[in-house]
Amino acid sequence: MKPGTVLSAGLSSQRSSWCSLRRNAGQDFSFDGYNASGVLIGMERLKLSIALDDRFEEGELQRIAEALGGAFDLKNRTYMLKASEESPPTAVFSFGEITGENIPYLLGVIRSDYWKKARKEISRILARRRDGEAPLVSFECSIGGVKANMRCRTSDQRSLEAAFEHLYSALDSLWTLAHNKNLPRSPSQIYLGYNEASKKYRIDRAVVLGTDFGEYEFDEKGGKWSKIASRQSDQRA
Predict the structure, then answer these.
(1) Which residue from 28, 39, 200, 224 lies 20 to 30 Å from 188 (Cα-Cα)?
(2) CA-to-CA distance for 87 and 90, rounded, in angstroms?
(3) pTM of the prediction?
C-alpha cells in the first residue's frame, strides 16, 4: 500500500501544550521518509496491537496488518484469540497509552489518505457477518490513567468504515476531557458507542473500579459526570 498523508516530523514531542497539539493535529502533512516497502523511516511508529477471535481467519488478520503496517509498529502484536460463545465476532485494535508525545502522530494518521485507504480494506474484511452475527469492532486506549473502549457493532461496510473515520473525533474528545481533568477518577473505564445515524461516538458510561466502585453517566451539554444509583445502593437505602 502506498502511503498518503500523515503528520511530519515537524510536530515534535516538545510541543506539549494541548492548544498546540490540537491546532497542529488537524492539518494535512505529507508522508515522506518511506522506503520501497512502505515502512516509515525517521519517525518512531506508534505501537498498535490487533486481535481477532477465531471466527475470523488468520489470512484476514494478516491482510489487516498489511493495511496498517506502514504507519504502526505491529511486531509481535497481532493475535488470534479463542471466540467466546457469549460474545459476537470481535476485533480489537489497541493503541496503548495516549500521551502528549504520541497523540499528534495518531490523530495525523487517522486524518490521512493512508488511513482512508486502509479503513476501506479493513472494513471490507471485518463487516461480513460470522455465524449469522454482526461483528463487534473495539478500539482501546488509555488516556490520563483512564482506559477507554470505543465500540461499533455492524455488518454494514460503509457504517464500519465511517466508524474508523470518526475515531478521530472520539480520541479528540477524550483528550480534551483528560486535559481539562474532567474524567472519572482512576482506575476507571469509559465506554463509547458509535451511533450510525449521527456518525458520532457517544459516551455510554464510565465504570470506576476499586473500593469506590460505581457507574457514571456523562451529560454532553453540561460537560459533567453523575453517578448512577446501583441496585445495591437502592437496597441499602
Answers:
(1) 200
(2) 7
(3) 0.80
What burial letters (b/e) apply to 58-86, b meaning 16+ CB within 10 Å?
eebbeebeebbbbbbebeeebeeeebeee
Q: What CA–CA distance (Å, rounded) separates 178 from 22?
A: 13
Choose among 67, 158, 71: nearest CA to 110: 71
The SS3 call for residue 139 is strand
Looking at residue 53, what is its pLDDT? 96
C-alpha distances in angstroms, 184 versus 138, 196, 201?
21, 26, 18
Cell numbers linked to 142: 488509555
* Cell triple for 134: 454482526
Beta bridge partners of 116: none
Domain boundaries, the chain: 18-236
Nearest to 182 by CA among 218, 142, 141, 208: 218
Percent of the chain whose predicted confidence (pLDDT) is above 90: 65
Name the residue with cell 465506554. 191
Asked if 104 and 15 count as a contact pair (C-beta separation under 8 A), the reply is yes
pLDDT reported for residue 213: 87
**CB 147, CB 188: distance < 8 Å:** yes
